[in-house]
Design a protein that fits this description.
By secondary structure, the chain is an all-alpha fold. The chain has one domain. It has a two-stranded parallel sheet. The longest helix is centred in the C-terminal third of the chain and has 39 residues. The chain is elongated. The termini are far apart.
């Protein structure tokens, strides 16, 4: 995140202006299906940026069953965003593949695809995620500001905090129950001795 990237407004505007070819078709429950060959789009995106990624890297997703409709829609949206000329890609494609494959799969399970376009905060999250994956921060922000804003807006971070909070509450409940049992046992022992 040491490198200053393009302005956040440029990226969020690009997301909002996503062409219809990169949007999901309407379908049941608003989730729709994607008729685009996502594997080919992701392969071409990497090739456009000068990386030769074997086509099997993306094609294998379908065979593994990872190509759920929500992942496919988010991956298309990320492909459109990552094609932004103002974004500088790193020397290695690993971080981009991590974003397109693993992170997209994780996020697609947390946020409905329509929200990435409709909700301003989700567009910001997606733009920040792309920058973070490329080792950049929005223009005009310090490293600390970018990190703080990412933690405040990240769906993944929010889900992690909720899970940690639930775990802590469960642990506190178990401790309270154990203390109550111990107090009851001690009280019973005291009464039996008297």
């Amino acid at each position: 995140m040491d490198i200053e990237g393009p302005p956040l407004a440029l990226l969020t505007a690009r997301i909002a202006d996503t062409p219809v070819d990169f949007l999901p078709a309407s379908g049941a429950a608003g989730e729709g299906t994607v008729a685009v060959a996502v594997d080919a789009v992701l392969h071409d995106l990497c090739a456009m940026r000068g990386f030769e990624v074997p086509a099997a890297t993306f094609a294998a997703l379908s065979a593994q069953g990872k190509a759920a409709p929500a992942w496919r829609r988010l991956s298309l949206l990320l492909a459109w965003l990552l094609a932004e000329p103002a974004l500088r890609w790193p020397q290695r494609v690993d971080a981009v593949l991590e974003l397109l494959l693993s992170r997209a799969e994780e996020l697609s399970a947390q946020v409905k695809s329509a929200q990435w376009l409709a909700d301003e905060e989700r567009r910001e999250e997606l733009a920040r995620l792309a920058l973070l994956s490329l080792g950049q921060r929005p223009a005009g922000e310090s490293v600390v500001q970018a990190r703080d804003r990412w933690q405040a807006i990240s769906s993944t971070e929010r889900a992690r905090l909720v899970a940690a909070s639930r775990s802590a509450e469960q642990r506190a409940r178990e401790i309270r129950e154990a203390l109550a049992r111990k107090a009851a046992e001690e009280s019973a022992d005291k009464w039996s001795r008297e």
